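Ops channel
N.P.: pipeline sanity check, posting one input/output pair.
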């Protein structure tokens, strides 16, 4: 009986967390908080890393940092990508003229990803890529 009570208490605690955590995320981040709370579940048992780099972010790096952002991203606004690119010590912004929170709908962007990762190439300043297909195509 004691074992059953322990399990019941653990289940109640888990239920309370499942309700509380998304609410807290949503309060802090009204647009995507609730969905973001659940997207983090897969990382819950990853080991805690204490040596993560937390700045300063304006130091010049040996390799130019490639920043890619769509112009109409509901989660990461384009103006913030422009600002971040300016604030980083050595960065280049590749603009995707399109919608959605991903940039894999453009052969142009994919090509720059490949060139950047294989050779360290970055696009010329001001490069813009077109979106080849809609982010949510009708089936």
């Amino acid at each position: 009986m004691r074992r059953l009570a322990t399990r019941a208490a653990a289940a109640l605690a888990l239920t309370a967390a499942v309700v509380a955590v998304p609410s807290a995320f949503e309060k802090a981040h009204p647009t995507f908080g609730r969905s973001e709370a659940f997207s983090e579940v897969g990382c819950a048992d990853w080991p805690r890393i204490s040596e993560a780099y937390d700045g300063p972010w304006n130091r010049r790096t040996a390799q130019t940092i490639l920043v890619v952002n769509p112009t109409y991203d509901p989660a990461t606004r384009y103006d913030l990508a422009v600002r971040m690119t300016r604030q980083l010590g050595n960065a280049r912004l590749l603009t995707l003229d399109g919608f959605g929170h991903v940039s894999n709908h453009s052969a142009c962007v994919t090509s720059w990803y490949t060139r950047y990762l294989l050779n360290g190439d970055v696009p010329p300043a001001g490069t813009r890529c077109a979106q080849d297909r809609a982010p949510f195509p009708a089936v």
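N.P.: looks fine end to end. The two ends are 54 Å apart (CA to CA).
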